[in-house]
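Forwarding the complex inputs:
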Amino acid sequence: MTRVYINIFIYMCVRVCVCTLRRGGGGGVPSCPLHFVPMKEADAIKLFVGQIPRNLEEKDLKPIFEQFGKIYELTVIKDKYTGMHKGCAFLTYCARESALKAQSALHEQKTLPGMNRPIQVKPADSEGRGEDRKLFVGMLGKQQSDEDVRRLFEPFGSIDECTVLRGPDGTSKGCAFVKFQGHAEAQAAINSLHGSRTMPGASSSLVVKFADTEKERGLRRMQQVASQLGIFSPMTLNFPAYNAYTQALVQQQALVAQSAYLSPVATVAAVQMQQMAALNANGIIATPITPITPSSGTNTPPTIAATPVPALPPPIGVNGYSSVPAPSNGQQTETLYTNGVHPYQAQSPAAALDPLQQAYAGMQHYTGPEGCNIFIYHLPQEFSDSEMLQMFLPFGNVISAKVFVDRATNQSKCFGFVSFDNPASAQAAIQAMNGFQIGMKRLKVQLKRPKDANRPY
DNA sequence: TCTTATT
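Prediction (whole assembly, two chains):
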Protein backbone atom coordinates (compact mmCIF):
# COMPACT_ATOMS: atom_id res chain seq x y z
CA MET A 1 0.00 0.00 0.00
CA THR A 2 2.70 2.41 1.01
CA ARG A 3 4.56 1.52 -2.17
CA VAL A 4 1.55 2.57 -4.23
CA TYR A 5 1.49 5.95 -2.56
CA ILE A 6 5.18 6.40 -3.15
CA ASN A 7 4.71 5.62 -6.81
CA ILE A 8 1.91 8.11 -7.10
CA PHE A 9 4.03 10.67 -5.36
CA ILE A 10 6.90 10.15 -7.74
CA TYR A 11 4.57 10.25 -10.71
CA MET A 12 3.15 13.56 -9.59
CA CYS A 13 6.58 15.02 -9.06
CA VAL A 14 7.49 14.12 -12.62
CA ARG A 15 4.30 15.67 -13.92
CA VAL A 16 4.93 18.92 -12.10
CA CYS A 17 8.46 19.02 -13.41
CA VAL A 18 7.41 18.45 -17.01
CA CYS A 19 4.62 20.99 -16.91
CA THR A 20 6.83 23.66 -15.46
CA LEU A 21 9.57 23.20 -17.99
CA ARG A 22 7.07 23.33 -20.79
CA ARG A 23 6.81 26.98 -20.03
CA GLY A 24 10.21 27.23 -21.58
CA GLY A 25 8.63 26.85 -24.98
CA GLY A 26 7.01 23.57 -25.81
CA GLY A 27 9.40 21.21 -24.09
CA GLY A 28 12.65 20.06 -25.54
CA VAL A 29 14.56 20.34 -22.27
CA PRO A 30 16.87 17.36 -22.38
CA SER A 31 17.38 16.61 -18.72
CA CYS A 32 14.86 17.05 -16.01
CA PRO A 33 16.21 16.45 -12.55
CA LEU A 34 13.24 15.85 -10.34
CA HIS A 35 14.09 18.47 -7.79
CA PHE A 36 14.95 21.22 -10.25
CA VAL A 37 12.28 23.67 -11.26
CA PRO A 38 13.44 26.73 -13.23
CA MET A 39 13.12 29.83 -11.15
CA LYS A 40 13.52 33.39 -12.19
CA GLU A 41 15.17 36.11 -10.24
CA ALA A 42 12.91 38.56 -8.50
CA ASP A 43 14.14 41.38 -10.75
CA ALA A 44 13.93 39.40 -13.97
CA ILE A 45 12.81 41.36 -17.02
CA LYS A 46 10.15 40.23 -19.40
CA LEU A 47 11.28 41.02 -22.92
CA PHE A 48 9.23 41.73 -25.97
CA VAL A 49 10.67 40.21 -29.13
CA GLY A 50 9.52 41.62 -32.45
CA GLN A 51 10.16 41.02 -36.14
CA ILE A 52 10.01 37.25 -35.91
CA PRO A 53 9.05 35.34 -39.05
CA ARG A 54 5.59 33.91 -38.61
CA ASN A 55 6.72 30.40 -39.33
CA LEU A 56 8.95 30.26 -36.26
CA GLU A 57 7.49 28.72 -33.13
CA GLU A 58 8.87 28.54 -29.62
CA LYS A 59 11.05 25.55 -30.38
CA ASP A 60 12.65 27.37 -33.32
CA LEU A 61 13.26 30.53 -31.34
CA LYS A 62 14.72 28.86 -28.30
CA PRO A 63 18.18 28.25 -29.78
CA ILE A 64 18.49 31.89 -30.78
CA PHE A 65 17.94 33.10 -27.24
CA GLU A 66 19.36 30.29 -25.14
CA GLN A 67 22.91 31.42 -25.78
CA PHE A 68 22.39 34.35 -23.43
CA GLY A 69 21.18 32.32 -20.52
CA LYS A 70 18.56 29.98 -19.17
CA ILE A 71 15.11 30.72 -20.44
CA TYR A 72 12.33 30.82 -17.91
CA GLU A 73 9.49 31.39 -20.34
CA LEU A 74 9.18 31.95 -24.07
CA THR A 75 5.79 32.48 -25.67
CA VAL A 76 4.93 33.36 -29.22
CA ILE A 77 2.07 35.85 -29.22
CA LYS A 78 -0.97 34.59 -31.06
CA ASP A 79 -4.31 36.09 -31.88
CA LYS A 80 -6.86 35.33 -29.23
CA TYR A 81 -9.53 34.37 -31.74
CA THR A 82 -7.75 33.06 -34.79
CA GLY A 83 -4.66 31.62 -33.15
CA MET A 84 -2.65 33.42 -35.75
CA HIS A 85 1.05 34.02 -35.10
CA LYS A 86 1.52 37.74 -34.60
CA GLY A 87 5.18 37.84 -35.47
CA CYS A 88 6.34 38.61 -31.95
CA ALA A 89 6.93 36.92 -28.62
CA PHE A 90 7.52 37.37 -24.92
CA LEU A 91 10.75 36.13 -23.44
CA THR A 92 11.76 35.93 -19.81
CA TYR A 93 15.17 34.71 -18.74
CA CYS A 94 15.72 33.28 -15.31
CA ALA A 95 18.37 35.92 -14.80
CA ARG A 96 18.02 39.64 -15.30
CA GLU A 97 21.57 39.72 -16.61
CA SER A 98 20.67 37.34 -19.46
CA ALA A 99 17.91 39.64 -20.58
CA LEU A 100 20.24 42.62 -20.66
CA LYS A 101 22.81 40.64 -22.61
CA ALA A 102 20.24 39.43 -25.12
CA GLN A 103 18.88 42.92 -25.59
CA SER A 104 22.25 44.49 -26.28
CA ALA A 105 23.37 41.66 -28.54
CA LEU A 106 20.20 41.31 -30.57
CA HIS A 107 18.03 44.42 -30.50
CA GLU A 108 18.21 46.06 -33.93
CA GLN A 109 21.39 44.04 -34.50
CA LYS A 110 20.34 41.28 -36.84
CA THR A 111 17.46 40.49 -39.14
CA LEU A 112 15.77 37.12 -39.18
CA PRO A 113 15.28 35.42 -42.56
CA GLY A 114 12.43 36.86 -44.55
CA MET A 115 12.11 39.98 -42.42
CA ASN A 116 12.65 43.50 -43.67
CA ARG A 117 13.51 44.97 -40.31
CA PRO A 118 15.93 43.95 -37.62
CA ILE A 119 14.75 41.92 -34.65
CA GLN A 120 13.48 43.85 -31.66
CA VAL A 121 14.41 42.78 -28.16
CA LYS A 122 13.37 45.14 -25.41
CA PRO A 123 11.45 45.16 -22.15
CA ALA A 124 7.79 44.42 -22.70
CA ASP A 125 5.31 47.22 -22.24
CA SER A 126 4.09 45.49 -19.12
CA GLU A 127 7.50 45.97 -17.54
CA GLY A 128 8.01 49.68 -17.55
CA ARG A 129 5.91 52.75 -17.34
CA GLY A 130 3.37 53.47 -19.99
CA GLU A 131 3.88 55.54 -23.06
CA ASP A 132 3.91 58.80 -21.17
CA ARG A 133 7.47 59.46 -22.20
CA LYS A 134 7.20 58.89 -25.90
CA LEU A 135 6.86 61.81 -28.27
CA PHE A 136 5.56 62.08 -31.77
CA VAL A 137 7.50 64.59 -33.80
CA GLY A 138 5.88 65.89 -36.95
CA MET A 139 6.79 68.35 -39.68
CA LEU A 140 10.38 67.26 -39.90
CA GLY A 141 12.36 67.85 -43.04
CA LYS A 142 12.55 64.81 -45.31
CA GLN A 143 16.32 64.93 -45.13
CA GLN A 144 16.57 64.73 -41.35
CA SER A 145 17.99 61.48 -40.05
CA ASP A 146 17.57 59.68 -36.73
CA GLU A 147 20.77 61.33 -35.62
CA ASP A 148 19.61 64.82 -36.60
CA VAL A 149 16.47 64.35 -34.58
CA ARG A 150 18.37 62.93 -31.66
CA ARG A 151 20.63 65.96 -31.56
CA LEU A 152 17.60 68.19 -31.48
CA PHE A 153 16.10 66.43 -28.48
CA GLU A 154 19.23 65.47 -26.56
CA PRO A 155 19.40 68.70 -24.53
CA PHE A 156 16.17 67.76 -22.74
CA GLY A 157 17.19 64.41 -21.32
CA SER A 158 18.32 60.86 -21.95
CA ILE A 159 16.80 59.36 -25.05
CA ASP A 160 15.91 55.66 -25.11
CA GLU A 161 14.77 55.50 -28.69
CA CYS A 162 14.72 57.82 -31.63
CA THR A 163 13.34 56.72 -34.98
CA VAL A 164 12.41 58.62 -38.09
CA LEU A 165 9.46 56.91 -39.78
CA ARG A 166 10.18 55.80 -43.29
CA GLY A 167 8.17 54.37 -46.12
CA PRO A 168 8.98 51.08 -47.81
CA ASP A 169 11.36 52.89 -50.16
CA GLY A 170 13.27 54.37 -47.26
CA THR A 171 12.12 57.94 -47.72
CA SER A 172 11.28 59.80 -44.56
CA LYS A 173 7.64 60.32 -43.71
CA GLY A 174 8.62 63.58 -42.12
CA CYS A 175 7.91 62.41 -38.62
CA ALA A 176 9.59 60.50 -35.83
CA PHE A 177 9.21 58.92 -32.43
CA VAL A 178 11.43 60.03 -29.59
CA LYS A 179 11.32 58.18 -26.30
CA PHE A 180 12.84 59.80 -23.25
CA GLN A 181 13.63 58.00 -20.05
CA GLY A 182 11.16 60.06 -18.12
CA HIS A 183 7.92 61.93 -18.55
CA ALA A 184 9.29 65.26 -17.33
CA GLU A 185 12.04 65.24 -19.92
CA ALA A 186 9.53 64.60 -22.66
CA GLN A 187 7.34 67.41 -21.39
CA ALA A 188 10.29 69.78 -21.34
CA ALA A 189 11.03 68.96 -24.97
CA ILE A 190 7.44 69.71 -25.92
CA ASN A 191 7.51 73.03 -24.12
CA SER A 192 10.67 74.16 -25.83
CA LEU A 193 10.40 72.66 -29.28
CA HIS A 194 6.75 72.46 -30.32
CA GLY A 195 6.10 75.14 -32.93
CA SER A 196 9.52 76.64 -32.27
CA ARG A 197 10.82 76.47 -35.85
CA THR A 198 10.04 75.35 -39.33
CA MET A 199 12.24 72.69 -40.83
CA PRO A 200 13.53 73.06 -44.38
CA GLY A 201 10.93 71.64 -46.75
CA ALA A 202 8.24 71.30 -44.09
CA SER A 203 4.90 72.93 -44.70
CA SER A 204 4.49 74.25 -41.17
CA SER A 205 6.27 74.54 -37.88
CA LEU A 206 7.63 71.60 -35.93
CA VAL A 207 5.09 69.45 -34.09
CA VAL A 208 6.12 67.89 -30.80
CA LYS A 209 3.51 66.07 -28.77
CA PHE A 210 2.98 62.87 -26.85
CA ALA A 211 2.54 59.93 -29.19
CA ASP A 212 -0.83 58.30 -29.60
CA THR A 213 -1.76 55.95 -26.83
CA GLU A 214 -2.44 52.31 -27.53
CA LYS A 215 -6.14 53.06 -27.53
CA GLU A 216 -5.81 55.86 -30.00
CA ARG A 217 -3.74 53.71 -32.30
CA GLY A 218 -6.29 50.93 -32.13
CA LEU A 219 -8.99 53.39 -33.00
CA ARG A 220 -7.08 54.65 -35.97
CA ARG A 221 -6.74 51.12 -37.27
CA MET A 222 -10.39 50.35 -36.69
CA GLN A 223 -11.42 53.44 -38.56
CA GLN A 224 -9.36 52.20 -41.45
CA VAL A 225 -11.04 48.83 -41.37
CA ALA A 226 -14.44 50.43 -41.09
CA SER A 227 -13.81 52.62 -44.08
CA GLN A 228 -12.38 49.74 -46.04
CA LEU A 229 -15.50 47.77 -45.38
CA GLY A 230 -17.33 50.74 -46.80
CA ILE A 231 -20.28 50.47 -44.50
CA PHE A 232 -19.97 53.33 -42.09
CA SER A 233 -20.76 56.96 -42.47
CA PRO A 234 -20.18 59.64 -39.86
CA MET A 235 -23.79 59.46 -38.75
CA THR A 236 -23.98 55.72 -38.50
CA LEU A 237 -22.03 55.48 -35.29
CA ASN A 238 -24.47 57.51 -33.30
CA PHE A 239 -27.48 55.64 -34.49
CA PRO A 240 -29.01 52.91 -32.35
CA ALA A 241 -29.05 50.45 -35.24
CA TYR A 242 -25.30 50.54 -35.06
CA ASN A 243 -25.56 48.61 -31.86
CA ALA A 244 -27.67 45.95 -33.47
CA TYR A 245 -25.12 45.54 -36.18
CA THR A 246 -22.30 45.44 -33.72
CA GLN A 247 -24.21 42.93 -31.69
CA ALA A 248 -24.49 40.66 -34.68
CA LEU A 249 -20.82 41.07 -35.40
CA VAL A 250 -19.90 40.15 -31.89
CA GLN A 251 -22.04 37.05 -31.97
CA GLN A 252 -20.69 36.10 -35.33
CA GLN A 253 -17.14 36.47 -34.20
CA ALA A 254 -17.37 33.50 -31.89
CA LEU A 255 -18.65 31.31 -34.71
CA VAL A 256 -16.23 32.74 -37.18
CA ALA A 257 -13.22 31.54 -35.27
CA GLN A 258 -14.30 27.94 -35.75
CA SER A 259 -16.26 27.95 -38.97
CA ALA A 260 -13.35 28.84 -41.27
CA TYR A 261 -15.95 29.87 -43.78
CA LEU A 262 -15.78 33.64 -43.60
CA SER A 263 -12.69 35.32 -44.85
CA PRO A 264 -10.03 36.21 -42.32
CA VAL A 265 -10.78 39.81 -43.14
CA ALA A 266 -14.31 39.44 -41.91
CA THR A 267 -13.07 37.77 -38.76
CA VAL A 268 -10.67 40.51 -37.94
CA ALA A 269 -13.16 43.17 -38.85
CA ALA A 270 -15.71 41.64 -36.52
CA VAL A 271 -13.29 41.56 -33.65
CA GLN A 272 -12.14 45.08 -34.28
CA MET A 273 -15.63 46.40 -34.52
CA GLN A 274 -16.44 44.86 -31.21
CA GLN A 275 -13.55 46.77 -29.76
CA MET A 276 -14.67 49.89 -31.54
CA ALA A 277 -18.10 49.47 -30.03
CA ALA A 278 -16.53 49.26 -26.60
CA LEU A 279 -14.52 52.40 -27.20
CA ASN A 280 -17.58 54.14 -28.52
CA ALA A 281 -19.58 53.15 -25.47
CA ASN A 282 -16.89 54.60 -23.25
CA GLY A 283 -17.03 57.88 -25.08
CA ILE A 284 -13.48 57.49 -26.25
CA ILE A 285 -14.19 58.12 -29.89
CA ALA A 286 -13.57 61.79 -30.33
CA THR A 287 -12.56 62.16 -33.94
CA PRO A 288 -15.20 61.69 -36.58
CA ILE A 289 -15.08 58.51 -38.57
CA THR A 290 -13.63 59.16 -41.97
CA PRO A 291 -16.44 59.43 -44.51
CA ILE A 292 -16.33 56.64 -47.00
CA THR A 293 -16.88 56.62 -50.68
CA PRO A 294 -16.87 53.00 -51.73
CA SER A 295 -15.74 52.31 -55.25
CA SER A 296 -14.35 55.78 -55.64
CA GLY A 297 -11.54 58.04 -54.62
CA THR A 298 -8.11 56.51 -54.68
CA ASN A 299 -9.42 52.98 -54.54
CA THR A 300 -9.43 50.85 -57.60
CA PRO A 301 -13.00 50.25 -58.67
CA PRO A 302 -14.43 46.86 -57.73
CA THR A 303 -13.02 44.17 -59.91
CA ILE A 304 -15.61 41.47 -59.52
CA ALA A 305 -16.71 41.52 -63.13
CA ALA A 306 -13.14 41.10 -64.27
CA THR A 307 -12.43 38.27 -61.85
CA PRO A 308 -12.48 34.88 -63.49
CA VAL A 309 -15.32 32.99 -61.92
CA PRO A 310 -14.36 29.50 -60.81
CA ALA A 311 -16.73 26.58 -61.02
CA LEU A 312 -20.17 27.09 -59.58
CA PRO A 313 -20.92 25.69 -56.16
CA PRO A 314 -22.31 22.18 -56.00
CA PRO A 315 -25.90 21.56 -56.98
CA ILE A 316 -28.60 22.39 -54.53
CA GLY A 317 -29.58 19.48 -52.32
CA VAL A 318 -33.07 18.74 -51.11
CA ASN A 319 -32.61 20.95 -48.06
CA GLY A 320 -31.16 23.84 -49.93
CA TYR A 321 -27.45 24.37 -50.49
CA SER A 322 -25.49 21.29 -49.71
CA SER A 323 -21.81 20.86 -49.07
CA VAL A 324 -20.58 24.27 -50.05
CA PRO A 325 -16.81 23.92 -50.01
CA ALA A 326 -14.80 25.78 -47.44
CA PRO A 327 -12.33 28.18 -48.97
CA SER A 328 -8.68 27.43 -48.66
CA ASN A 329 -7.33 30.52 -47.00
CA GLY A 330 -4.21 29.36 -45.25
CA GLN A 331 -1.95 31.62 -47.19
CA GLN A 332 -4.07 34.67 -46.65
CA THR A 333 -4.13 34.01 -42.96
CA GLU A 334 -0.39 34.08 -42.85
CA THR A 335 -0.15 37.48 -44.46
CA LEU A 336 -3.20 39.05 -42.94
CA TYR A 337 -1.39 41.35 -40.58
CA THR A 338 1.35 42.41 -42.92
CA ASN A 339 1.47 46.18 -42.58
CA GLY A 340 -1.79 45.86 -40.71
CA VAL A 341 -3.61 45.59 -44.01
CA HIS A 342 -4.63 42.48 -45.83
CA PRO A 343 -3.21 42.53 -49.34
CA TYR A 344 -6.68 42.26 -50.77
CA GLN A 345 -7.87 45.13 -48.64
CA ALA A 346 -5.07 47.28 -49.85
CA GLN A 347 -6.36 47.03 -53.38
CA SER A 348 -10.05 47.71 -53.20
CA PRO A 349 -13.14 47.01 -51.16
CA ALA A 350 -14.23 44.36 -53.61
CA ALA A 351 -10.89 42.66 -53.55
CA ALA A 352 -11.07 42.40 -49.76
CA LEU A 353 -13.20 39.30 -50.22
CA ASP A 354 -12.29 35.71 -49.99
CA PRO A 355 -11.85 34.39 -53.52
CA LEU A 356 -14.73 31.98 -53.08
CA GLN A 357 -16.98 34.79 -52.02
CA GLN A 358 -15.80 36.88 -54.91
CA ALA A 359 -16.80 34.05 -57.15
CA TYR A 360 -20.20 33.90 -55.54
CA ALA A 361 -20.65 37.61 -55.84
CA GLY A 362 -19.74 37.46 -59.51
CA MET A 363 -22.37 34.86 -60.24
CA GLN A 364 -25.74 35.54 -61.56
CA HIS A 365 -28.20 36.25 -58.82
CA TYR A 366 -28.43 32.93 -57.13
CA THR A 367 -31.66 32.53 -55.25
CA GLY A 368 -31.67 30.31 -52.19
CA PRO A 369 -34.55 28.39 -50.62
CA GLU A 370 -37.50 30.43 -49.43
CA GLY A 371 -36.75 32.36 -46.25
CA CYS A 372 -33.07 32.60 -47.09
CA ASN A 373 -33.34 35.55 -49.46
CA ILE A 374 -33.63 39.14 -48.37
CA PHE A 375 -34.54 42.30 -50.20
CA ILE A 376 -32.61 45.47 -49.43
CA TYR A 377 -33.83 48.91 -50.44
CA HIS A 378 -32.37 52.38 -49.98
CA LEU A 379 -28.85 51.25 -50.56
CA PRO A 380 -26.38 54.07 -51.07
CA GLN A 381 -26.05 54.89 -54.74
CA GLU A 382 -22.38 53.93 -54.72
CA PHE A 383 -22.90 50.48 -53.23
CA SER A 384 -22.17 47.66 -55.61
CA ASP A 385 -22.47 43.92 -55.10
CA SER A 386 -19.31 43.76 -53.07
CA GLU A 387 -20.18 46.51 -50.63
CA MET A 388 -23.56 44.98 -50.01
CA LEU A 389 -21.99 41.56 -49.63
CA GLN A 390 -19.57 42.87 -47.05
CA MET A 391 -22.34 44.48 -45.14
CA PHE A 392 -24.18 41.17 -44.78
CA LEU A 393 -21.26 38.83 -44.30
CA PRO A 394 -21.45 39.01 -40.52
CA PHE A 395 -24.83 37.33 -40.48
CA GLY A 396 -23.94 34.10 -42.18
CA ASN A 397 -22.80 32.42 -45.34
CA VAL A 398 -23.73 34.68 -48.17
CA ILE A 399 -24.53 32.72 -51.31
CA SER A 400 -25.27 35.68 -53.48
CA ALA A 401 -25.39 39.45 -53.33
CA LYS A 402 -26.79 41.37 -56.24
CA VAL A 403 -27.41 45.09 -56.56
CA PHE A 404 -29.75 45.90 -59.41
CA VAL A 405 -28.35 48.20 -62.00
CA ASP A 406 -30.04 50.32 -64.61
CA ARG A 407 -29.11 48.88 -67.96
CA ALA A 408 -28.98 52.20 -69.75
CA THR A 409 -27.01 54.26 -67.27
CA ASN A 410 -25.17 51.46 -65.43
CA GLN A 411 -26.27 53.18 -62.22
CA SER A 412 -27.43 51.31 -59.15
CA LYS A 413 -31.15 51.24 -58.67
CA CYS A 414 -30.41 51.35 -54.93
CA PHE A 415 -31.92 47.99 -54.21
CA GLY A 416 -30.68 44.45 -54.26
CA PHE A 417 -30.95 40.91 -52.98
CA VAL A 418 -28.80 38.87 -50.65
CA SER A 419 -29.17 35.13 -50.23
CA PHE A 420 -27.94 33.15 -47.26
CA ASP A 421 -27.63 29.41 -46.92
CA ASN A 422 -30.14 29.28 -44.09
CA PRO A 423 -33.23 31.17 -42.92
CA ALA A 424 -31.80 32.02 -39.49
CA SER A 425 -29.05 34.11 -41.05
CA ALA A 426 -31.59 35.91 -43.18
CA GLN A 427 -33.67 36.68 -40.10
CA ALA A 428 -30.63 37.88 -38.19
CA ALA A 429 -29.75 40.18 -41.07
CA ILE A 430 -33.26 41.62 -41.20
CA GLN A 431 -33.31 42.07 -37.46
CA ALA A 432 -30.07 43.96 -37.35
CA MET A 433 -30.07 45.86 -40.61
CA ASN A 434 -33.64 46.94 -41.23
CA GLY A 435 -33.67 50.65 -40.47
CA PHE A 436 -29.89 50.84 -40.39
CA GLN A 437 -28.88 54.36 -41.23
CA ILE A 438 -26.30 55.02 -43.90
CA GLY A 439 -25.77 58.66 -44.65
CA MET A 440 -29.20 60.23 -44.94
CA LYS A 441 -31.03 57.02 -45.76
CA ARG A 442 -32.22 54.07 -43.79
CA LEU A 443 -32.09 50.60 -45.21
CA LYS A 444 -35.24 48.68 -45.75
CA VAL A 445 -34.47 45.01 -45.24
CA GLN A 446 -37.10 42.31 -45.51
CA LEU A 447 -37.61 38.82 -46.82
CA LYS A 448 -37.71 38.59 -50.56
CA ARG A 449 -41.17 37.88 -51.85
CA PRO A 450 -41.42 34.34 -53.15
CA LYS A 451 -41.30 34.31 -56.89
CA ASP A 452 -44.80 32.99 -57.34
CA ALA A 453 -46.34 35.33 -54.80
CA ASN A 454 -49.56 36.85 -55.95
CA ARG A 455 -49.46 40.53 -56.40
CA PRO A 456 -52.63 42.50 -56.01
CA TYR A 457 -51.80 44.52 -59.09
C1' DT B 1 2.40 63.48 -39.59
C1' DC B 2 1.45 58.14 -35.26
C1' DT B 3 5.87 52.39 -36.86
C1' DT B 4 5.95 46.24 -36.81
C1' DA B 5 3.81 43.21 -33.29
C1' DT B 6 2.61 43.89 -26.36
C1' DT B 7 -0.25 37.73 -23.72
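The mean pLDDT of chain A is 69.
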